[in-house]
Amino acid sequence: MSVIEDHTPYEEVRISSAMPGDYFALLKPRVMSLVVFTALVGLLVAPGSIDPVLGAVSILCIAIGAGASGALNMWYDADIDAIMSRTASRPIPSGKITRQEALGFGLFLSAFSVITFGLAINWFAAFLLAFTIFYYAVVYSMWLKRATPQNIVIGGAAGAFPPMIGWAAVTGSVSLESVVLFAIIFIWTPPHFWALALFKAEDYKRAAIPMMPNVAGEASTKKQILAYSLVVAPLGVSPWMLGFASIAYGVIAAAFGVAFVWFAYRVFKMDEADRKMLPAKKLFGFSILYLFVLYASLMVEALLPKVTALLGMV
Amino acid sequence: MSMSEELETITLTEEQAKSRRSRNIAIGLVCGGLVVLFYVMTWVKFGEAMLAKTG
Questions:
Q1: Domain total for chain A?
Q2: In the predicted model, what is the mean pLDDT of residues A207-224?
């Protein structure tokens, strides 16, 4: 038996008091739920079929991969998370989990999700998942976020990949349809985030993150929000125009697209002196509903024939 | 240091002991879940081929 004589004083030994829920919080469950939802839509809309068990494994892997990238983001951004009111209660700034623990957790989950996805489903989809984790953790978190006001424009791709991964899990490839599913989220991201950045500008300023309102000013941000909304509205209808969604979807997407532009216009006309920024808050809330309704409609359309067939068998 | 001499150890606070127990249970459940998941996954992917070989 050997005894290390050079003791570390007990005061310096850190014993974790983190609960499992704190580790779960590292996975950004709210972002994860959006990822699961959009990936599921990609998986259901894709032509062909996948065994339900393997479909569930695909979604699980994508969810864990998304969670892993969230943990890596929190590891890297712990310093600025501590400054911003929205993120100060996250597990690292609140002292429940150390940065090293979050890094190890994120790296382990990344490797686990990608390898399991590759072995169980296909390596092309696994590659897309690995690329998405890399894109969010390295390209967005480490490189773009603190460097350019275009951070969430380019970085938004990370949040747009999940339906493409779901599609690739079934087909083993990407196609125009999956690119459209990607593009809707990609173009939707800037007006969604800039609406938030408008009424959280002080937070971002304190943390020295170059969000668009802090760099280009409110007027320019409002113009850009309106411009992006004018692109996202017709893009939202394109699944119907391209023939992989019904006219019912087209009508819903068109109506919600018009509403999106209307909310963006209200932000555009928002008075500079308006510090409550209700129009920006409303646009932020509506943008979430918009994406949910579009993807839920696609999901219902994809599920309807399958449910009808099942009922027919009974 | 003699073997009989008592080693000074760390005594966990109630909170630390509780969180450690919770983490252990969570890890146990996750490991158990993974065993089931990989078992089912293997059957779904290779079950038919395995049955055809043995049958």
A1: 2
A2: 93
